[in-house]
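Slide 14.
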Amino acid sequence: MTSQRTLNRLFVLHSWAGIVTGLLMFIVCFSGAVVVFKNEIDLWANPSLEGLPRTQPPAPLDTVLAQLQARYPGVTVETIALPDDVNPNYFAHVRERGAPASQRTKVALRSDTGAVVGPVDSQLGQYLRMLHVFLFFGPRWIVGFLGAAMLVLIGTGIVIHRKILAELFTQRWGRSFRVVMSDLHKSAGIWGLGFHILIAATGAWLGLAPLFEQGTKYVMAGAPAASATRRPPAAPPAAPMQSLDALYRSAQQAVPGLQARHVSLRRWGTTAAEASFTGALAGHLASTARVDMNAATGQAKKALDPRTAGFWSLVNGLMEPLHFGDYGGLALKWLYFILGMTPAFLSISGTLIWLDSRQQRRREAQQPSGVQGGLQA
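Slide 15: predicted structure.
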């Protein structure tokens, strides 16, 4: 049985954890609920793409790359996104000659012919994802920390509200603002408990696991020793490139069932050129399968198959689809959206309850002692 003293301490921890993280928690949870519809938002926000045909199979990757290079001479093609269940078009991120290193242009292409439609009208869906994952400009571990804080809030909330089953249907309408908000706060937390744990745990993993991985590598390898100034490596010589479609087929041989969603091109046109195919696995929830191909020789350099890479790699591959809910169609996205709004409501309602409680204590402290004595009598 938890003592009253322990409950009071947990209540203080629960309150202050919610207050300190409340605003950021609301931003991350609200944007996360909306971003499950990222692809649908991108399609809606780009009227120039409306009505373009969906073609199966889509135009070859080689055709898409050739169309980009013809439309934008001297451009550096960095990524190509393949058509998916929502968006019927190809998309490419390109960096034009002379543009700053951080500036990219997102270009849409038809899936039937590979012809360039032009720069997209809006990247609203991507902006929402950047807000959710990085708070636009922050490192991802900040959002991971918020996931850990959410787990603390869940744990302390469960202990504080021990009569969970009895409070499932408790809603005292007509009472004070704080009582009504408190009942709504508890009900939202209880009804969405399983989902909240899933989102908090996967969010904490996605944000903090890379940080711990880098720290472990640093400790195991030791601090890098100081060295003399190094000259930048010489640019690799030019070389003819293999067919992108042939490279994709080789990648699918290296990782059977690979369904690429993105192709990343690096140092294209040189002997060190790479084409990385990243995507999902047919009939498997994991979403981090990847194959790096040498684009000059056509040989596979590195393959990541979560099915064979060990337990922790499999767990890591499951985190993103479980967090974003993009593995079960439109009905699952709506479920994620509705349940995803409840943590945002909890952050707001918890803050309002805390502020109302402080105002109540302030009013009681300002009352004359005689009034208090009369009330107590």
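Speaker note: The longest helix spans residues 329-366.
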